[in-house]
């Protein structure tokens, strides 16, 4: 079982307006059977942080086109390819 994980999630470029105008969130993700990945994190964000208009942030099981996801300042799409 994966242990709880503490992460900082940041929103900018107007996306923070979907999260009550809060840009930075320090969160602790609960322990779960599977290790945490970006897709699981997006589901958690949608359930726990997103306050309005999910269709502007999420499409299917990913973010909408045009939303850049960075992990430690690296593009998520580049990390998925490696």
TrEMBL record:
Subcellular location: Cytoplasm
A GO CC annotation given for this chain: cytosol
Keyword hit for tRNA processing: yes
GO biological process: protein urmylation; tRNA thio-modification; tRNA wobble uridine modification
Keyword entries, A-Z: Cytoplasm, Isopeptide bond, tRNA processing, Ubl conjugation pathway
Keyword Cytoplasm set for record: yes
Post-translational modification: C-terminal thiocarboxylation occurs in 2 steps, it is first acyl-adenylated (-COAMP) via the hesA/moeB/thiF part of MOCS3, then thiocarboxylated (-COSH) via the rhodanese domain of MOCS3.
Pathway field: tRNA modification; 5-methoxycarbonylmethyl-2-thiouridine-tRNA biosynthesis
CDD domains: Ubl_Urm1 (cd01764)
Protein origin, superkingdom: Eukaryota
The family this protein is said to belong to: Belongs to the URM1 family.
HAMAP family per UniProt: Urm1
Quaternary state and interactors: Component of a complex at least composed of URM1, CTU2/NCS2 and CTU1/ATPBD3.
Role of this protein: Acts as a sulfur carrier required for 2-thiolation of mcm(5)S(2)U at tRNA wobble positions of cytosolic tRNA(Lys), tRNA(Glu) and tRNA(Gln). Serves as sulfur donor in tRNA 2-thiolation reaction by being thiocarboxylated (-COSH) at its C-terminus by MOCS3. The sulfur is then transferred to tRNA to form 2-thiolation of mcm(5)S(2)U. Also acts as a ubiquitin-like protein (UBL) that is covalently conjugated via an isopeptide bond to lysine residues of target proteins such as MOCS3, ATPBD3, CTU2, USP15 and CAS.
Protein name: Ubiquitin-related modifier 1
Protein's organism: Delphinapterus leucas
Name of the gene this protein is made from: URM1
């Amino acid at each position: 079982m994966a242990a709880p994980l503490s992460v900082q999630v940041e929103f900018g470029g107007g996306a923070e307006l979907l999260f009550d105008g809060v840009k930075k969130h320090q969160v602790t993700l609960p322990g779960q059977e599977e290790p945490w990945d970006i897709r699981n994190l997006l589901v958690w964000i949608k359930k726990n942080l997103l306050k309005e208009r999910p269709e502007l942030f999420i499409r299917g099981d990913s973010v909408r086109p045009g939303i850049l996801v960075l992990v430690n300042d690296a593009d998520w799409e580049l990390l998925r390819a490696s």
